[in-house]
UniProtKB/TrEMBL annotation, chains A, B:
Keyword Lipid biosynthesis: no
PANTHER family for this protein: BLL4848 PROTEIN (PTHR39962), LPXI FAMILY PROTEIN (PTHR39962:SF1)
Known EC number: 3.6.1.54
Domain LpxI C-terminal: start-end pairs: 138-268
Species whose genome carries this gene: Acidisoma silvae
Domain LpxI N-terminal: 5-133
Gene3D superfamilies: 3.40.140.80, 3.40.50.20
Name under which the protein is recorded: UDP-2,3-diacylglucosamine diphosphatase LpxI
Keywords: Hydrolase
Length: 284, 284
């Protein structure tokens, strides 16, 4: 059988976009949708199967049957996903190989999963390698420009994200007039934005800052923003998003920018210069 | 008029406890309850007035009328409190003296307020100086003992709190099996606990870790735990609280310990040894 790109798919539009890009480049694809995470409608146009995350052994054997050597892990898999794990007997052995790393923070877990996939003979590639055009670049994407207060809030957000990243926690925070309104842990960006409305002060709204963690496993967990992120931020009274250029996937770019422009909201990519000397861009 | 201890009161039981302790030591007290924060029932037994936070000039002149030289700022003042600020004309001048510090994070603001109060001739004292008996000590307060997983989660929580504290954000986080479920910013501990129920994994519950920020202004914003904290943590599926000994106020100690013991929940004070070499205890 002709080799295929294997896609292990969580939720959102990215898995289908990876599949489409690979097919457009003449490559066969096979998607494994993780039950409870991947969205059937989005996977329908492609050869696929739905499996539980806990059925790890079945996932691996199906990928081998389909002659997938290259794998992409893409699309958020929301915690708590442990309920879905219910590992089968062989899955428990695999889990033992992942070992303590499963309890070491998000990034530790992902790195261990990628290591085990490598031991099984797969090569894990980053979604951004296939979706090069979706990686956000440095510079302003919107008509609205950050003012001085916004720039100062972005700098404070960068400092907070770096402190968090060192502790392998989250990738985002919201800053308004120097005050850190919220810090992201496992709840995810959308949930964090959801609570900011009630915490904000009057006056110019806060800024969402999203960075790549230092040493982050870029092949499986790149920060992603899109129209939904912008709409959530606007609903929470924010006035802008600053993301790490070269390390953030932008989904639904046109509709995201249109939603931002309609609301006088800015979206800006932070390059190495904006991030200062301690940037992690391009390291991993 | 005989000198009095001035108490600028936020919410909760602490302002009345400070007043009671001062009176028991033979000192006259006068409480200024911040409107929308201080609770009338709790202040009723003591000489007091209610004023807006924004009426700073009236607060200062009343404190001078009452011959208060020593001041205690005590009891949480929940953000967003800016709506209550609406500073009067003279208040705006005071705010200008606080200046940019008002936008520098919680601790920067408090330090600036204390500085301005000093310039006005007041001496700001820490609530813990008057409520010495309420400062939590190192060691276990409950019958339930933290197991190895809990100890490991406490260590991870310490690392996260330190990283956050350096960025002058929050004082707490919740860790379950090595995963940081939540990080505290301006929403406060109770709100953070409120969202943990939905984020927890099955298995042994998470641990709330609360530390003093490095360089924290201990005279105005000491971490505080009590029965409400324990009940909130139990409701969120947690199984213990670890706090920084010597830097945390324990309110309603007996009912807190009773609630914890009834639920097989632990509360432990972390001394310099548990906190490692980089402890901030006793520095400020």
């Amino acid at each position: 059988m002709e080799p295929a790109l294997g896609i292990i798919a969580g939720s959102g539009p990215l898995p289908a976009q990876v599949a489409r890009a690979a097919e457009a480049a003449g490559q066969r694809v096979f998607i494994i949708g993780l039950e409870g995470h991947a969205e059937p409608d989005r996977l329908a146009p492609f050869p696929h199967a739905f499996l539980r995350f806990g059925g790890a052994v079945r996932i691996l054997s199906l990928l081998k049957e389909q002659n997938c050597r290259d794998l992409v892990l893409v699309g958020p898999v929301k915690r708590p996903s442990f309920r879905d794990l219910r590992p089968d007997g062989e899955g428990l052995k695999l889990l033992a190989r992942i070992g303590k790393a499963a309890f070491m923070g998000d990034d530790g877990l992902l790195k261990a999963v990628i290591r085990v996939l490598g031991e099984e003979g797969f090569r894990v590639r980053g979604a951004h390698e296939i979706l090069g055009g979706l990686v956000g670049r440095a510079g302003l994407m919107t008509r609205t420009v950050p003012d001085d207060q916004a720039k100062s809030d972005i700098q404070r957000g960068i400092a907070v994200c770096r402190a968090l990243g060192v502790a392998d926690v989250g990738q985002g925070c919201v800053v308004q007039a120097g005050i850190v309104l919220a810090v992201e842990a496992v709840e995810g960006t959308d949930a964090m934005l959801g609570r900011c409305g009630g915490l904000a002060w009057p006056g110019p709204g806060g800024i969402l800052v999203k960075l790549v963690k230092p040493g982050q496993e870029r092949r499986a967990d790149l920060p992603t923003i899109g129209e939904q992120t912008v709409r959530g931020a606007i609903a929470a009274g924010l006035r802008g998003i600053a993301f790490e250029a070269g390390g953030t996937l932008i989904v639904e770019r046109e509709s995201m920018v249109a939603a931002a422009d309609a609301a006088g909201f800015f979206v800006i990519g932070l390059g190495p210069e904006a991030l200062g000397a301690r940037t992690t861009t391009g390291r991993n």
